[in-house]
Amino acid sequence: MRKGLAVLLVLVVMLPCIISSANAWGFTLISTDINGDTSDTFHGGDTVYAHAKTVKNSEVCLYVVADKNEWAGGETLTDVSGGYETVTSDATTGYIPITAIWATTSGDAGNYDIVLDQNHNGILDDVDLVDCDIAVGFSVTVPEFATIAIPVAAILGLVLFFNHRKHKKE
């Protein structure tokens, strides 16, 4: 029962992004991990990847931009990852290979969108795709203090424990 509830919750949360990341032509754009599995949360230090289906044998630009909950069109695209990626889609399928678009750092915490600029003009217009234009595309998080402190304290405790046992035997 809990598993079913969890799946339902994930679907309800993801549905707006799934719907908004595909346009009338069936083109899609998603954030993924290195294996191509959809991922919307990354930790500082992770690499963000993108995967898309677009016009066959088309060269496109992938931008990582600050999240906007509503994209109206006409916005200038400002890449926050150090520069956009230029990728060519497959001539047969139109798929863009899983592409590394950003090696994040712990200072990059925040919400972002991916924009696929099909006409290379650096402006969001009707032919372009946004990975989730009505919600957050993906997030970069920084581990909380406890996430880091507890393992460090455990390791330090083990070192002290074994050091104490070693000196006790001598």
CATH third-tier fold name:
Immunoglobulin-like
Give the distance, in angstroms, between the N- and C-terminal Cα atoms: 57 Å
Give the beta-strand count.
9
What is the approximate shape? elongated
Question: What can be said about the biggest beta sheet?
Answer: 6 strands, mixed
Question: What does the model show?
Answer:
There is one protein chain. This protein has 170 residues and is of the alpha+beta class. The longest helix is centred in the last third of the chain and has 25 residues, at 145-169. The model is unreliable at 5-25 (pLDDT under 50). It is 26% helix and 29% strand. The protein is elongated. It has helices at residues 2-20, 145-169; strands spanning 28-32, 41-43, 47-53, 59-66, 85-88, 95-103, 110-117, 129-130, 138-141. The chain has a single domain (2-169), classed as Immunoglobulin-like (Sandwich). Strands 2, 4, 5, 7, 8 and 9 form a six-stranded mixed beta sheet that branches. The termini are far apart.
Write the SSE topology:
Layout: H1 2-20, E1 28-32, E2 41-43, E3 47-53, E4 59-66, E5 85-88, E6 95-103, E7 110-117, E8 129-130, E9 138-141, H2 145-169
Parallel strand pairs: 2-9
Antiparallel strand pairs: 1-3, 3-6, 4-5, 4-7, 7-8, 7-9
Keywords:
170 residues, alpha+beta, Immunoglobulin-like, six-stranded mixed β-sheet, three-stranded antiparallel β-sheet
Quick overview of this protein structure:
With 170 residues, the chain is an alpha+beta fold. It has helices spanning 2-20, 145-169; strands at 28-32, 41-43, 47-53, 59-66, 85-88, 95-103, 110-117, 129-130, 138-141. The strands form two sheets. Strands 2, 4, 5, 7, 8 and 9 form a six-stranded mixed sheet that branches.
